[in-house]
Amino acid sequence: MALLLGVDTGGTYTDAVLIEGETRVIASAKALTTRQDLAIGVGDAVQAVLLQSGAKPSDISMASLSTTLATNALVEGQGGRVALIYIGFKERDLAAHGLGEALKGDPYLVCAGGHNHAGGEATPLDEPALRAFLHAHRSDVSGFAVASQFATRNPAHELRAKALVREITGRPISTSHELSAKLNGPKRAMTAVLNARLIGMIDRLIGRAEDRLREIGIDAPLMVVRGDGALISSAQARERPIETILSGPAASIVGARWMTGADHALVSDIGGTTTDVAVLQDGRPAIDPAGARVGPYRTMVEAVAMRTTGLGGDSEVHFTTEGLQGGVTLGPRRVLPVSLMATIAPEIVHETLEAQLRATTPGDHDGRFVRAVPGLEADGIGPREETLLARIGPNVHPLGAVLKSRIELSALRRLIDRGLVQVSGVTPSDASHVLGRVNAWDSKAADMALRLFARRRTGAGDVLAQTANDMAHIIINQLTQQTVLALLETAFAEETAPLGPPPEQLARHVLMQRGLSKHRGLLRLDAGLNVPVIGLGASAASYYPAVGDILGTEMILPEYAGVANAIGAVVGRVTMRRSGTVTSPSEGKYRVHLPQGPQDFADEQSALTMLEETLRRDATTQAQNAGAQDIQITVTRDIRTAGVEARNVFIEATLTVEAAGRPRVAA
User: Fold this and answer.
1) Strand partners for 30
2) Which in 51, 73, 104, 407 has the greatest CB count within 10 A?
């Protein structure tokens, strides 16, 4: 029998499913995600699902991978050190769209060059400055990003920079015009920077995953889920890893639709690191017209319109004091649950927690542990980080034992951002262990950690909670409230954008909150969601019924909600979109902006025909390279004209060609 294998690497678990004939799930399995080498977790999950089903590796005719690696890396501020080549812009343009913040102190060059709106050269490229910059940074960055002014009108300077990067450094290079056909240079530059930052991480994941599948005996082609839910080949994902941001969440929506057949619903997927919420309309997820947003970053990547919040089962629990009352808030950073760390180093975790409980006063770092992520190279870090990393070494330590001063907290944060170090602390997963809802790891360690957390004092001088059980309920209630807000924000963003107050403000408005609690006084206030919610994720069954109760809506929890991403990874279609533009720089001249440079025509129809033929060819080739068969083509034309002296004058046209088909499977 021919089977389809879907795999999803999440922040905590890696899921695998086997689907027969695209109609039914015959087996599903989970394995812990191995951050130091994600392919280990992939292999463990695949072997587990093969064992459970009794299938042979040779039965697999296609494998597909969805991953939250890129999404989580951007949310948590991780990724390689890169350099930006910014051509034809001003220094002040770095502040636009948070580009300067996204660089995080990485090197950049602002140099002369670029083109104008019509595709003509505005200023010659400053090659001497570019060469000097490349020689200076050829060894201290993992890759380069280049964005040139109006590169989507004429990419000549980006292509020249790309050639020089390869000649002088041999490092990977991300050019903005290859990632988006849209205008807005700073936003394209942001996309190129993030793409360059992710290249090493995604390349390692895909390469190692392919190796691991071959070792198991699976020779089927490997596909990867793109951020809009479509499938691409593993080679394409390695070149353009930025397109895999929101890959996991997009796969979950495809999986949710496949499992439930719902046409109109909110889809909420809770993982270890994030909660991802999207709207399902007419059975299809909407594409975000402004480009995918992940954490603080807005990109030009076509992806599912989704709100991603740093809220998951492994979100860090923070103590807060509001007036005399105390409470907690969750996220956005993920930490390793104490109950999980106790399975890695049981003696040190239990002995430390017991000693901290015996102490008469709470310590700043009680219930927190640290370890270096094994197997990663610590390149490009400062001396303070090197000293701290060496002190941590290969073992698990109480956090307070390795930090010698407060100034080292900054060094620790930088090591975490680089993905070199993991911190363990109290999470909702630990609270679920205490309440008996989950029994995957060390419940005793979770109980001690929550008792330590509960000893914190509020502004009134009272302890936060009397027992671990009480503390667990406080944490789970907070998770419920933050999930409710995430769902309301998504609903308000859909119904009020772009007018009206921000969705975040509306979701928290006192009238909205009173309506959810069915206020009855002189006023009767009722509020809630008017569509069902499809709850996804391994912990959805534990957390989401209470969310549905608060929002007064049906909460759909599919049988395979815990592996929806893996299902969506394998039931999607290959879809390639290519867009291009025709402008009119002067009357009677129609300019087609092609990847190899502008080309002029004397009439509108010839220009449009030339552009459509080029886009059809490129989209079809890309779809075929991704492994699509039975390809269908859809063409959309957006032609803008203006009325001048009783006649229509051509202004600009944008053509989009979509080539879509099911992926080929191995014979």
Assistant:
1) 15
2) 73
Q: Quote the pLDDT of residue 105.
A: 87
Q: How far apart are the first and last CA of the chain?
A: 11
The residue among 460, 66, 434 whose CA lies nearest residue 225 is 66
What DSSP string describes 267-286? EEEE-SS-EEEEEEETTEEP
Ramachandran angles phi, psi of 351, nearest 5° = -60, -40
pLDDT at position 567: 93
Distance set, CA 534 to CA 281, 386, 544, 565 (Å)? 13, 46, 9, 13
pLDDT reported for residue 75: 67
DSSP secondary structure letter of residue 65: E
The amino acid present at 547, given as its one-letter code, is: V
pLDDT on residue 147: 94
pLDDT at position 360: 87
| Token couple for 360 | 């008469």
Label each residue of 121-165 as H, E or C.
ECCCCCHHHHHHHHHHHCCCCCEEEEEECCCCCCCHHHHHHHHHH
- Smallest CA-to-CA distance from 191 within 179, 178, 203, 173 is with 179
User: Is residue 208 within 8 Å of 239, Cβ to Cβ?
Assistant: no
Q: How far is CA 181 from CA 154, 155, 178, 287, in A?
A: 11, 11, 7, 16
Best CA proximity match to 665, nearest among 638, 632, 630, 633: 630
Tokens representing residue 81 in the block = 């050190």
CA distances from 62 to 59, 154, 222, 224, 472 (A): 9, 39, 7, 11, 43
Q: What is the CA radius of gyration of the chain?
A: 26
Residue type, 235: A
Residue appearing with tokens 């993982």: 271
Using CA atoms, how far apart are residues 344 and 349, in angstroms rounded to an integer?
A: 9
Cis? peptide before 332, omega within 30° of 0 = yes
Packing angle of the helix pair 468-496, 540-551 (nearest 10 deg) = 60
CB–CB of 555/539 below 8 Å?
Answer: no
Three-state DSSP state, 66: strand
319 vs 329: CA distance, rounded Å:
7
DSSP 263: S
Integer Cα distance of 210 and 468 in angstroms: 44
d(CA 390, CA 629) in angstroms, rounded, equals: 52
**Other beta carbons less than 10 A from residue 124's beta carbon:** 10
Count of C-beta atoms within a 10 Å radius of residue 224: 28
> Average pLDDT by consecutive 10-residue portion of the chain (667 residues)?
85 88 88 83 94 92 86 72 93 83 89 91 95 94 93 93 94 88 85 86 87 93 88 88 82 91 93 87 80 75 83 93 76 93 97 95 92 78 88 93 89 87 96 93 97 88 91 96 95 78 92 95 95 92 94 95 90 88 90 87 94 94 88 93 79 92 74
Find, among 512, 500, 569, 551, the residue nearest to 223 by Cα.
Answer: 569
- pLDDT given for residue 76 in this prediction: 67
| Tally of residues, the chain | 667
Q: How many other CB atoms are found less than 10 A from the CB of residue 448?
A: 26
548: tokens are 């549905």
- How many other β-carbons are positioned within 10 Å of the β-carbon of residue 104? 14
Which DSSP helix (H) or strand (E) runs through 579?
strand 574-586
Which of 93, 222, 88 has the alpha carbon at shortest distance from 147?
A: 88
Q: Which residue is it, tokens 């991603």?
A: 308
Torsion 236-238-243-246 (CA) sign: positive
Query: Environment class of residue 237 by beta-carbon count within 10 Å: exposed (0-12), middle (13-18) or buried (19+)?
Result: buried
Residue in the block written with tokens 């039965």: 59
Cα 28 to Cα 90, 220, 250, 276, distances in angstroms: 53, 19, 19, 22
